[in-house]
Amino acid sequence: MAFGYPVTFGPCTPVSGSVFPVGTTRVTCSVSTNEGGPGTLTFNVDVSRFGVAPAISGTPSAGTVGTAYSFAFTVAGTPVPTADPLPAGLTLSVAGVLSGTPTTAGLFPITITASNGVSPDATTGVSIEISPGSTNGSLQDLFGS
Question: How many C-beta atoms lie closer than 10 Å to residue 75's C-beta?
């Protein structure tokens, strides 16, 4: 766009730094010139959905009650993973890291879903085995003398 003389742009609506949703957003800016005075400039910003459908994979290692645990799933397509249900004491971060300190022993089947707005969502089923923690006492303490 050529104006032929110096142009100064003032504030715009929406303001600079705004996040535009997918679709068309109309932007209006105030402008002024040394030659023609103040005015406005209106234009459209078109945002298309671009991306890759998410993917998530990995087989979590076993854990132990009372011991810190961490496992990072391999994620692609900038997913936002969720998991249900998780063993007590563990959480899943938006980066796909399963971590925490398990509080209950058992074999826990969970479903992990990764979604980023590009179809299809990625879903995988995994199981996490959490072993009982070790006891701090002796066998004699557990079973008596």
Answer: 22
Q: Which CATH number describes the domain made up of 55-131?
A: 2.60.40.10
Q: What is the predicted pLDDT for the residue at 63? A: 96
Q: How far is CA 43 from the centre of its chain?
A: 32
Q: What is the mean pLDDT of each run of 10 residues along the chain (145 residues)?
A: 66 81 85 78 77 81 96 81 90 90 95 81 90 67 53
Q: Count other C-beta atoms under 10 Å from residue 14's C-beta.
A: 13
Which residue's structure tokens are 């679709």?
23
**pTM of the predicted protein model:** 0.56
Structure tokens at 48: 């298309």
Going from N- to C-terminal start, the domains of the chain cover 7-47, 55-131
Whole-number Å distance between alpha carbons of 83 and 61: 16
In terms of DSSP bridges, do strands 97-100 and 37-47 run parallel, antiparallel, or are they unpaired?
A: unpaired
Residue 88 contacts residue 63 (beta carbons within 8 Å):
no
Sign of the CA dihedral with 34 first, then 36, 37, and 38 last: negative
